[in-house]
Design brief:
Blueprint lengths: L1 H15 L11 H12 L6 H65 L3 H11 L1 H9 L10 H27 L2 H8 L2 H12 L6 H5 L1 H14 L5 H25 L10 H24 L2 H11 L5 H26 L4 H23 L5 H27 L1
Helix pairs in contact: 1-14, 2-3, 3-14, 3-15, 4-6, 4-12, 4-14, 6-11, 6-12, 7-11, 7-15, 8-11, 10-16, 15-16
Amino acid sequence: MAAMKKIAVLAFVATVASPVSAFAFSPRANVGKSVKSFNAAPSVNANQFDTAKTSHSTSLALSSAGGAAAEAEDSGSSALAETLKTGSYFALWYLFNIGYNIYNKQALNALDYPWTIATIQMATGILYFVPLWLLGLRKAPKLSGDDLKTLLPIALCHTGVHVGAVIALGAGAVSFAHIVKASEPVVTCVVNALLLGEILPAKVYATLLPIIGGVAIASMKELSFTYLALAAAMLSNVSSSLRGVLSKKTMSGKKIGENLDAQNLYAVLTAMSTVLLIPMMLATEGTGFLKAFKDVVAGGSFTNKSLSALLLLGGATYYLYNEVAFLALGKVNPVTHAVGNTIKRVVIIVASVVAFKTPMSTGSIIGSSIAIAGTLLYSLAMNSVKKSK
């Protein structure tokens, strides 16, 4: 329960965070007083007038200089506040992401029902954004039937991204799943070439070589390698790439509904994916999860409350790390985004190895390092191409 309270507090902070406003010094206040006292003087001779005029000019100059200094100080304070806010978004992004991977793996170790767990995690997000809409803390999107039809293929891909990742995390080590996920740029290039006819410069394709080579080395040397983990992680990669392509083809330059910003779009896709996942879950795993839940509790490893909390924490951190990611990445340039995303993957791999004491062979460490470095190079190369257009 303590963990649930911490997650709730962090979620509230991420939701209501707003720019810090500092008191702005206005030089007009001092200028006004100087002018007023000058006009209120009884009677003056010429010398007194010159003296007063000089004094007034000096007052104006000092007042303006003081105002400029205060404005500069205020600007510096605002920049510092913005930097601290961006840093806090990145910290929460990493924290929620690490938490999700740990809670998710613990739940999968206890209950081997990845489809059901994926559905619970997806549905948990609804408990977050629906209250925000109902309370007016966030404008609710307004969508027509045609809008939902447009979003349906994207929601299907969104479902594949999540299910593939959950299955991969359950079938193998967390570190291995993220190593394979690092190969997503390779899939993206292939999908874009086939479906969009997008041909990129040679320097971009060159960065794919270390990614392919690194993943291959890591897979061959992975101590906990399974074909299911590899296939599921690749399903997640393919679904993510298709989601990006479909988004470009169906949403580019097209207005869909009202109030559909990035965060609300993610919320709508979450709701649609939940609806899609429920029949898939029942068809794949049925209701066996309920009996397994009771058996785990009867075994004494968990109580009803602790196991339920674990499942809810997995869902809460899953939704929140994506929510905060929008806030974090919206504050930085593409290069910082690429570096931050690369560091995030390294942090997750290290955290999972420490948390679950999963050994990594030397070959796996070398391969994962090469693949992740290749992913960073790919991101930087793509940013360079976009700038040149």
